[in-house]
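Sample pair:
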Amino acid sequence: MKNENIPADIKSKSLKQARDEINEILNKLESKDVDLSGSLAEYQRLIMLNKHINFLFKAKVKEISSNKKIKKNDKK
């Protein structure tokens, strides 16, 4: 998944910041007083935040995997 399509303001967020914003958006979308036209923009931002979180997780998995490989090679 490419991180290029994600806006800079989202790319700069930490995992916790992105998660908190997702929770805020979900609360807005789940409320009874939802503005349908604004909901589309909120939903699209939610998707971008989700992509960013997936990117952060994949990067962390790669980092952990490479650290395990290095440690295995050091033991040999």
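Residues 8-75 form one domain.
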